[in-house]
Amino acid sequence: MNKSIKELVRKHNIRTSKSLGQNFLIDDTIVKRIVDSARISADDMVIEVGPGVGSMTVELAARAGRLIAVEIDRHLIPALTENLAGFNNVDIINEDILKINIDELIKAQTEKASGIFKPGNVKVVANLPYYITTPIIMKFLEESTSINLFVFMVQKEVADRILAQPGSKDYGALTVAVQYYCKPERVFDVPPHCFIPQPGVISTVVRLKAYEKPPVDVIDRKTFFKVVKASFGQRRKTLLNALYNSGYFNMNKEELKELLRNLDIDENRRGETLSIMQFAKLANSFSEKDC
Q1: Is residue 181 exposed (0-12), middle (13-18) or buried (19+ Cβ within 10 Å)?
Q2: pTM here?
Q3: Mean pLDDT, the chain, integer
Q4: CATH 3.30.70.1730: does it fit domain 5-210?
Q5: Are 43 and 70 in contact (CB under 8 A)?
Q6: What is the average pLDDT across 87-107?
Q7: Where, residue-wise, is CATH 1.10.8.100 in the chain?
Q8: Residue 153 forms beta bridges with which residues?
Q9: Partner residues linked to 121 by β-bridges
């Protein structure tokens, strides 16, 4: 049974760290809604990032075949361990998720959980620290092909960016990156009073279903993301100038103009107006020219 988070915090004299972006979820109804949205079964291995003192961890452990809780703050480990007493399917790892090789972690845990977990379904559930939300999301998307589903609680502003459409103010490099790897879905918003301490913003739970195959074909993924980064690097610049000023491509302006013209893309458009399909076509043109 999940112990009262406030009780654990008091018992272990825990002081939340602003530098680590710690806000502990204390609303059991919200916890169950988040875990429900991940559709976890005994066939699943679940990775939780930043479990804190175990607000969601107990509920995840009760449903998953195998749970890996990765917590960077060593001061929280005693309370987390106490909260998880009685579960034999949980491994608490006191490390920085950004320094862990995700695929090696999954492989090691699959071997360790022999007989408990059926390999094949790996999910990530996390209440992400706001200050490193994007690096954590991108690490998982770029470094592992083993994960089927992500359920992240993020700042509402980040959720808006993830779900944005071309031409909107929220549409950016994060949008294109997430939508290249996953089909995103907004699940529900979480108000500040559901946490201790209360954050100054609304949070949003998003569900990202990993594609077996990206929705667009690209010749070279690195070139694709260079084009995306360049296009959004100077949002007020035209696409032509943003690409040229990025220094990523060994082409002069006239060559860039011709390339855009051949793709029927107006050189005076802004990068944020391009669809993921247009970014793919643009990147493939660069790849064919070996820029």
Answers
A1: buried
A2: 0.90
A3: 90
A4: no
A5: no
A6: 94
A7: 221-289
A8: 127, 205
A9: 44
